[in-house]
């Protein structure tokens, strides 16, 4: 039993490391080669966990071979447009000038219901609102609305730009200082300490401390055990 727990833990850490190597795209919508890699890695992991008689190396080597192939193919696709088209295909236009290309729907094996469902995922419930739509290589749909249905921008409405150009970043979360976010805002721990002292708090007493690039601060102190009790 202890051996099974240990093998499961090691495989779990191995797969996390492998997915990190392949990049953040693995966590979102996948290209065909990325999907294949993910499925194969998950199968190799389950075999190693379910078959304790097999040595761990029998899973470790294939996993990192697949990771290496995925990285190699991804790098090749970046350098070669032809290779990228072979591996992932190319985007396909399914609505142009408000007209559905029914032949392309059949080629992509998209039903009308599939198209309507994808449009609803873009908060579009009326076909008459769509000017242009394209199926991307990962299967998602990109949509451009007709001019009369587009949401106006702040500049078109004549709205002034706010002082802060970036959203607030957490500088302290549950008492832990996030140095990377401090550097993004051009701040340092000395500045943060002064802010804490001004509110008579230590960093470990703060649940969340937020700040934007205009210097606007939001912080929430931790509740004491007495305050938490009803």
Estimate the global geometry from the Cα principal axes: flat
The chain-level mean pLDDT equals: 83
Terminal-residue CA separation:
43 Å
Order of helices and strands: HHHHEEHHEEHEEHHEEH
Please compute the radius of gyration using only Cα atoms. Answer: 26 Å
Total E-strand runs: 8
Key structural traits:
single chain, four-stranded antiparallel β-sheet, CRO Repressor, alpha+beta, 230 residues, 8 strands, 10 helices
Which helices and strands appear, and what pairs or packs with what?
Elements: H1 2-22, H2 32-50, H3 57-79, H4 81-88, E1 92-96, E2 99-100, H5 102-108, H6 112-120, E3 130-135, E4 141-145, H7 154-157, E5 169-173, E6 176-177, H8 179-184, H9 189-198, E7 206-211, E8 217-221, H10 225-228
Helix pairs in contact: 1-2, 1-3, 2-3, 3-4
Protein architecture, described:
The structure is a single chain. The protein has about 230 residues and is of the alpha+beta class. The protein folds into three domains: about 80 residues, no CATH class; about 60 residues, bsu07140 like domains (CRO Repressor, 2-Layer Sandwich); about 60 residues, bsu07140 like domains (CRO Repressor). Helix 2 runs antiparallel to helix 3 and helix 3 crosses helix 4. It is flat, with a radius of gyration of 26 Å. About 0% of the residues have low confidence.
Concise account of the structure shown:
By secondary structure, this protein is an alpha+beta fold. Helix content is 48%, strand content 16%.
């Amino acid at each position: 039993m202890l051996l099974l727990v240990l093998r499961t833990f090691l495989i779990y850490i191995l797969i996390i490391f492998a997915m990190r190597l392949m990049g953040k795209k693995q966590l979102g919508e996948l290209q065909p080669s990325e999907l294949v890699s993910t499925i194969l890695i998950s199968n190799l992991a389950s075999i190693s966990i379910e078959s304790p008689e097999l040595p761990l190396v029998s899973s470790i080597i294939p996993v990192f071979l697949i990771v290496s192939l995925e990285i190699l193919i991804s790098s090749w696709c970046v350098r070669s447009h032809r290779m990228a088209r072979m591996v992932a295909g190319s985007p396909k236009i399914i609505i142009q000038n408000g007209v559905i290309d029914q032949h392309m729907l059949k080629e992509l094996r998209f039903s009308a219901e599939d198209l309507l469902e994808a449009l609803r995922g873009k908060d579009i419930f009326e076909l008459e609102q769509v000017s242009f739509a394209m199926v991307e290589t990962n299967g998602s749909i990109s949509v451009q609305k007709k001019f009369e249905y587009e949401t106006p921008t702040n500049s078109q409405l004549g709205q002034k730009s706010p002082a802060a150009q970036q959203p607030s970043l957490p500088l302290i979360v549950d008492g832990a200082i996030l140095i990377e976010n401090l550097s993004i805002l051009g701040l340092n721990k000395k500045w943060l300490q002064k802010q804490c002292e001004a509110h008579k708090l230590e960093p470990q007493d703060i649940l969340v401390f937020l700040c934007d690039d205009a210097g606007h601060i939001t912080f929430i102190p931790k509740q004491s055990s007495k305050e938490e009790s009803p």
